[in-house]
Amino acid sequence: MKWTAQIGAVRKMRFFFDESGGFEARPRAHRAGIVVAAVLPESALDEVFGRVKGFITTLSKIERHKGEPKGARLTDANRLAFCELAAECEDLMLAVTMLDITPLAKMDATTLRTSIIQRLNGLAGQCRYETMRNEVILLAKQVGNLSIPQTLRLTATARCVMRALNHAVVRFAADCYRPCWNTMSFELDSVQTRPGNREQQVFESLLPAWITAWSIKYPITTVEELHTPDHPFIERYGHPDGINLGEILRGNVHWRESSANPGIQIADMAAAVVSRAAHGMRGIATAREIADYAILMKRALLPQDDQLGIFSIVETARDDIGRRYAGLLDTVLAVRRGCIVPTE
Fold it and tell me: I want to staple 289 with a disulfide (CB 3.0 to 4.6 A). Which of 19, 285, 320, 336 is the partner?
């Protein structure tokens, strides 16, 4: 299996996505649907993928499915080894998004679907241009035809796309990464969907509208000293009103088989680590699971990050979210201070 980038190919900024935690709204103490993006400039692809391939060769059969590594199956020792490997890869960036599902378990399906559609229609009202407003309204109608778990998964993935892009623009702004901003590729695990089905069609056609509407409240951040007019990202995607997100996303969203895509495998293993820290194997995370999360988050935090990437699609008190995810919040604060998170 050849995983290296093609010689002479146009350099890209590569975004790989996978999920963990499930997106069913069930009565539990707390539950989150987790999507993780692994972001790599193509100039670093060979080195990072080579290290991942070497790690995979050390895994036992029970830690794989048809030869493919699965984050949920990793032993404690190999979960730690993966986190340490990820932390050592200087050009690997992770973006973690957690959709807080706990409040949704109290709502019946009709009320929940109505709430989601209302939230999307609210995004339409933020759009400056009529065409964009109409696209977001169409998205709300399309979402009404999907199951609740499908809708929640697409919502979390769309939010992760935006978060990953916002982080990557800052993290990889330096001159050495300029050639990789000529184009971008957003690659998602295709295991959950059939080619050409409604879920893919909704996501691919209306993701740009969704992200653009969100970006009105949370605009893409650029660094004035680095993102000069001749920077490839600004040259190609800059617009008088900001960044042209539609141009970034249209035609660049791809559904890939994870078995042949080490980037998605990285995202899968990282998502499993976050899920274990959020939920624990049996409902309560252990000190070891929290410590693994601390190591991994070294690749997922920026100086001005909003810390955990938790969001909700219904009105939820910030204190309520803070209480449910206090352990993760404390861990992130410890990582920022350079403290060692205990494993016992």
Answer: 285
